[in-house]
Design goal:
Length: 54
């Protein structure tokens, strides 16, 4: 039994791997931007989101 993949299997996996990499990168960028903007808003407002008022 061989561990090598035939051409058709490799042809199918390459686009899937590329899409996964693109999606992961987009999700990481979205999370980074949202975190940065949330932190900036906390600094601007002077309190964290959902903090109960005293």
């Amino acid at each position: 039994m061989s561990n090598t993949m035939d051409k058709s299997g490799e042809t199918k996996l390459k686009p899937m791997a590329a899409e996964l990499a693109k999606t992961s990168t987009q999700q990481l960028l979205k999370l980074t931007v949202e975190t940065a903007l949330g932190t900036e808003m906390e600094e601007h407002l002077g309190y964290e989101k959902h903090d109960p008022t005293s």
